[in-house]
Recover the amino acids of this structure.
């Protein structure tokens, strides 16, 4: 009886130690194993937003200014002046955000955007109106889903705020361009959506594992090894007794 009671006490002590060890490992992701992105860390999508907003301002400000002067329709001239003024405000916001984050932004439009500006310089009358509306509406439609995606997934407070601000400006600009009656919706480029079903689920799972939102393989193996170690110690003690 004494031997049985001794074995029972040893087993209970070992079980308690095992439970404590496993519980400690389960808490480790929050304390030591997890490495979430800090508030100043930027992902590729964050930089895409910063650069995209900056590039948009660099070519749409002169485009809007041209429209305010060359537009054949009063509505086009009005929309051009307003877009130029609002992009000046948005440009200040993105430069301020970049300064806080310590990142460099583009200083001139890219080659494609320069080509659009050249198109507008060489056009006049109704043709200018059409080019202005077509180019700007397509450009706003392209960056609009990027803003939404970054707002939903960024881990940076400054980028999140900029996405919210840019969202309002871009939506307003699309509405103004559409108010001219010149937008040819059938010719707008299709929206690029994320891969559905399995590929999307796999990507989400990998992303969650990468950012430590669940138990990763390190924790699982640590728990298993700890359990085996404590089980072996308990077995040796029981055999010796």
């Amino acid at each position: 009886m004494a031997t049985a009671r001794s074995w029972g006490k040893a087993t209970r002590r070992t079980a308690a130690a095992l439970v404590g060890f496993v519980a400690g490992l389960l808490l480790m992701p929050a304390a030591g194993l997890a490495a979430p992105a800090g508030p100043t860390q930027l992902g590729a999508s964050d930089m895409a937003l910063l650069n995209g907003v900056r590039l948009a301002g660099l070519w749409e400000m002169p485009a809007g200014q041209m429209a305010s002067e060359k537009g054949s329709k009063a509505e086009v001239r009005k929309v051009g002046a307003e877009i130029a003024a609002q992009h000046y405000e948005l440009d200040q916001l993105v430069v301020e955000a970049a300064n806080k984050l310590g990142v460099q932004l583009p200083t001139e439009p890219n080659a494609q955007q320069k080509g659009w500006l050249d198109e507008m310089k060489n056009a006049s009358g109704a043709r200018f109106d059409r080019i202005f509306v077509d180019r700007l509406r397509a450009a706003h439609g392209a960056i609009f889903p990027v803003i939404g995606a970054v707002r939903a997934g960024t881990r940076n407070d400054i980028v999140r705020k900029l996405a919210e601000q840019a969202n309002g400006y871009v939506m307003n600009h699309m509405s103004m361009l559409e108010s001219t009656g010149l937008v040819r919706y059938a010719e707008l480029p299709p929206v690029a959506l994320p891969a559905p079903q399995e590929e999307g689920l796999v990507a989400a799972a990998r992303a969650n594992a990468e950012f430590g939102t669940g138990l990763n393989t390190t924790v699982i193996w640590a728990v298993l090894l700890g359990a085996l170690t404590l089980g072996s110690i308990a077995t040796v003690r029981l055999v010796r007794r």
Observations:
- The radius of gyration is 30 Å.
- Confidence is low (pLDDT under 50) at residues 21-39, 196-225.
